[in-house]
Each structure stands twice: as C-alpha cells, then as structure tokens.
C-alpha cells in the first residue's frame, strides 16, 4: 500500500506561504523580480515547506545504479563493467559527484537498484530488484511488480533520509546504457519522433546514435507502453534505477521536501513520477539543461525550467549538487538582504 498511500499524501503547495515569500522578495532593496530565478526558487521552497524564510541545512543526493539488458546491443560508448566500477568510485570518494557534493556541503547516498554484478561494500545501500533489466528491444524491461517494487524502494529511501533530518534531496544515476530507456520513456510520453530525441550519451559516434534511435523505435513497437499508465511505461521501457528515482521524487513530495532533478535520466524518472502523481512536479527543482537533445523537450513537458546551462552530460547527480549551491544562495538572499525600510532606500516608482 506504500505506493498508493504516498501518492495520496502529495498535497498542494502552501499558497499563503508563497504569498508571504513574494511580499518579502518585493520588500528587499532591489527592483521587483530583478533576481529572476533566485526569487522563483525561494518562493517555490516556501510553498513546499510552508516557511517564508526557509534554510535547508542538511542535503543529500541519492545516486541510484542499475544495468540495462539493451547495453548488449552496443547502445553506449562505454562497457557495462563501468557501472559497478563507478559505484566503487562513488563509495571511495573520487568521482565528480563526490567533489561537487563536498563543495555543496551535502552527502551522497549510493544505492544498488540492480546492477549486473554485485558490489560487496557496507557503504552501499542495496535494494536490488534484479541483475539488470531485460533487453527492451525484445520485450519488457521488467514485470509490473518489479516496477512497483523499484518505486517503493525509492519512496522508502527518501522517507528514511527525511526521517534522519535531510531537508533537501536530489536525484542522481549511474547505469551504462540508461540514456536509451530514458529516451524511450520520453518518446512514449510525448510522441515526439525518436531520432529528434536521441543523443550520444557517454559518447557514441553519429552512426551509433542512428542505430540507438532504431533500437529505441523497436523497443516502443515491441512493447507499446501506455502513456496514461506510468507503471506500464516504467515496466516496459524503463530501468530499475529510473523507477527508484521516481520513488525518491514521490517520497520527497509526500513529505513536503524539495527535490532537485539532475539530468536526462533523472528527468525520465521525473516523467514517471509526474505521470503517477501530477502534483509531484510542484516539488521538483530542475538543476540544469543536459546536452542530451531531448532534455529541453523533457523539461518543457514536465513544466520546469532548468537553473543552469553548463553543457553537462555526466549524470551521477552532478548538476543537482551544483544547483544546491545556487539554492543556498537563493535562501540566503531572503534571510540576509535588507528591506527598503531597514536600509532607508526609497522604493518610489518601484512597487
Ligand atoms: O544526466 C545526463 O544528462 C546524462 C547524459 C548522458 C550520459 N549520462 C551518464 O552516462 C551513462 C549513460 O550513458 P549511455 O551512453 O551509456 O546511455 C549513465 O551512467 C549516465 O549517468 C548522463
Ligand atoms: C567513466 C564514466 C563515468 C560516469 N558517470 C556517470 N556515467 C558515467 C559513464 C562513464 C563511462
């Protein structure tokens, strides 16, 4: 019942808190709206938390790993071995996500949602749904029960984090081949032509990208995912880490905790979350615009605007960790700037 209960618990934003936060922004010594998205994000967080001047001290990126049967078809420039190898890298603290979370004063929680190989390390959170998904070019990635179990694992992980005091969550991923299911999810929900949405991922050449697009078209034709049914899309053309991340988003939203969405794979998870619970988008903050060509369409469909344009395409939660520092700045503005009244600055003509 965790799945249904969590979805039912996702409430509306606190409109009064948002109105108070708006008034506070307009009282600060600057022309109204002149801090752009710094203002928007602070107001959104007020609506999520119910606080006019929130401060989110404890932050964590949940980086979920999984493998993909379709990787056998050569859809990635990298080999599948890299998934567990990078997970070891995360646990040992030497990956980009470790550097950027340290920079942001945040933690990384690394989760095995279903890699082909087992990584034996007590620092790894293990919620394996299976040893990688099935090849989506031949049939469904997983069963509907597995899709549901993946989402529920994500809900549980988010809820445990929040219980432990985490106030700001983010999604991150690791999985060789996972831009392929993410593109299939995007195509399933939007109906856009697959070649328009398909990108190089880790670094495919143009012929490789073309083959990848053909395999995605095949996966959609073989599986016919129902875009009105998020669990069906996840089960047929998704991935274990994508399902887990959709659960993290739903769990955060149900607990009124903001969740920062990383790049293309996290975006696919956000599409699944929105399809299961439309209100979940109110709790999402889009970190950056990925280099994957479909990402802009994905974010438009979600109705969220990315904060950063950094030409990043790494995943892991790196864009989200960077966005943490911007969110900190946005919340400091609200708390530390003087008002027109306090500073004795004239607001004539400005309001
Ligand atoms: O987050 C993104 O926008 C992003 C874009 C391209 C690639 N990635 C990362 O690269 C891997 C997937 O790329 P690929 O080519 O193996 O499908 C996976 O580990 C992702 O975290 C991530
Ligand atoms: C080295 C490497 C690091 C990654 N981090 C996320 N996806 C990745 C893919 C590769 C290939």
UniProtKB/TrEMBL annotation:
- State the Gene Ontology BP annotations: cobalamin biosynthetic process
Q: What is its EC number?
A: 2.4.2.21
Keyword field: Cobalamin biosynthesis, Glycosyltransferase, Transferase
Q: Where is the active site?
A: 316 (proton acceptor)
Query: Which CDD domains does the entry link to?
Result: DMB-PRT_CobT
Its catalytic activity? 5,6-dimethylbenzimidazole + nicotinate beta-D-ribonucleotide = alpha-ribazole 5'-phosphate + nicotinate + H(+)
Associated pathway: Nucleoside biosynthesis; alpha-ribazole biosynthesis; alpha-ribazole from 5,6-dimethylbenzimidazole: step 1/2
**GO molecular function list:** nicotinate-nucleotide-dimethylbenzimidazole phosphoribosyltransferase activity
According to its UniProt entry, the function of this protein is described as: Catalyzes the synthesis of alpha-ribazole-5'-phosphate from nicotinate mononucleotide (NAMN) and 5,6-dimethylbenzimidazole (DMB).
Q: Which family does it belong to?
A: Belongs to the CobT family.
Matching HAMAP family: CobT
What protein does this entry describe? Answer: Nicotinate-nucleotide--dimethylbenzimidazole phosphoribosyltransferase
Its source organism is Thermacetogenium phaeum (strain ATCC BAA-254 / DSM 26808 / PB)
Q: What is the lineage of its organism?
A: Bacteria, Bacillati, Bacillota, Clostridia, Thermoanaerobacterales
């Amino acid at each position: 019942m965790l799945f249904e209960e969590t979805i039912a618990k996702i409430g509306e934003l606190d409109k009064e808190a948002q109105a108070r936060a708006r008034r506070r922004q307009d009282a600060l010594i600057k022309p109204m709206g002149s801090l752009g998205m710094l203002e928007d994000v602070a107001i959104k967080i007020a609506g999520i938390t119910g606080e006019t001047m929130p401060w989110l001290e404890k932050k964590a990126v949940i980086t979920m790993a999984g493998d993909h049967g379709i990787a056998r078809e050569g859809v990635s420039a990298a080999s599948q071995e890299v998934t567990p190898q990078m997970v070891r890298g995360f646990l040992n603290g030497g990956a980009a996500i470790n550097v950027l979370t340290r920079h942001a004063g945040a933690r990384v929680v690394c989760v095995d949602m279903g890699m082909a190989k087992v990584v034996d390390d007590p620092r790894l959170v293990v919620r394996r749904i299976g040893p990688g998904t099935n090849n989506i070019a031949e049939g469904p990635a997983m069963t509907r029960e597995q899709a549901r179990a993946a989402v529920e694992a994500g809900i549980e992980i988010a809820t445990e984090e929040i219980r432990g005091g985490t106030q700001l969550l983010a999604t991150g991923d690791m999985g060789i081949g996972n831009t392929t299911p993410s593109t299939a999810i995007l195509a399933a929900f939007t109906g856009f032509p697959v070649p328009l949405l398909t990108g190089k991922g880790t670094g495919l050449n143009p012929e490789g990208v073309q083959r990848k697009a053909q395999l995605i078209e095949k996966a959609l034709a073989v599986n016919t995912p129902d875009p009105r049914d998020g669990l069906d899309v996840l089960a047929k053309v998704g991935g274990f880490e994508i399902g887990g991340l959709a659960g993290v988003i739903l769990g955060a939203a149900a607990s009124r905790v903001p969740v920062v969405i990383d790049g293309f794979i996290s975006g696919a998870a956000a599409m699944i979350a929105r399809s299961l619970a439309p209100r979940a988008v109110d709790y999402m903050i889009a970190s950056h615009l990925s280099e994957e060509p479909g990402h802009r369409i994905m974010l438009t469909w979600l109705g969220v605007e990315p904060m950063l344009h950094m030409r990043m395409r790494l995943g892991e939660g790196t864009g989200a960790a960077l966005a943490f520092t911007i969110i900190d700045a946005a919340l400091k503005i609200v708390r530390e700037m003087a008002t027109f009244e306090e500073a004795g600055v004239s607001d004539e003509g400005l309001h």
